């Protein structure tokens, strides 16, 4: 079980990094310090962006569950 949770943690961590990098920059963050905040997003969110948000939230939930599960198993078995 611990091996499964560790593999799940590794896979979701990589997926989370990739999904966050796929998101469009909204401005106002660190990107605006380097000139990336010049664009304005006047258009609404597209269906693809909403689906990307949903997938990202699902992967975040799996990531948190794997962290909590791994921590509990280490605490109980350690």
UniProtKB/TrEMBL annotation:
- InterPro entries tied to this protein: SecG
According to its UniProt entry, one GO biological process term is: protein secretion
Show which residues constitute the signal peptide. none
Subcellular location, principal: membrane
Organism (species): Halopolyspora algeriensis
Q: Which family does it belong to?
A: Belongs to the SecG family.
Q: Where in the cell is it found?
A: Cell membrane; Membrane
What biological function has been recorded for the protein in this entry?
A: Involved in protein export. Participates in an early event of protein translocation.
Please give the Pfam families that the UniProt record associates with this protein.
SecG
What GO cellular-component annotations does this UniProt entry give?
plasma membrane
Write out the coiled-coil annotation as residue ranges.
Answer: none
* Sequence intervals crossing the membrane: 55-74
Keywords on this record? Answer: Cell membrane, Membrane, Protein transport, Translocation, Transmembrane, Transmembrane helix, Transport
Q: Looking at the record's lineage, which domain of life comes first? A: Bacteria
Record-given protein name = Protein-export membrane protein SecG
How is this protein positioned relative to the membrane? Multi-pass membrane protein
Which Gene Ontology terms cover its molecular function? Answer: protein-transporting ATPase activity
């Amino acid at each position: 079980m611990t091996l499964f949770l560790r593999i799940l943690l590794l896979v979701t961590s990589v997926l989370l990094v990739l999904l966050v990098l796929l998101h469009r920059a909204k401005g106002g963050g660190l990107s605006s310090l380097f000139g990336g905040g010049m664009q304005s997003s006047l258009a609404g969110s597209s269906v693809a962006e909403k689906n990307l948000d949903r997938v990202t939230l699902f992967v975040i939930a799996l990531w948190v569950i794997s962290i909590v599960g791994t921590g509990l198993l280490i605490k109980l078995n350690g």
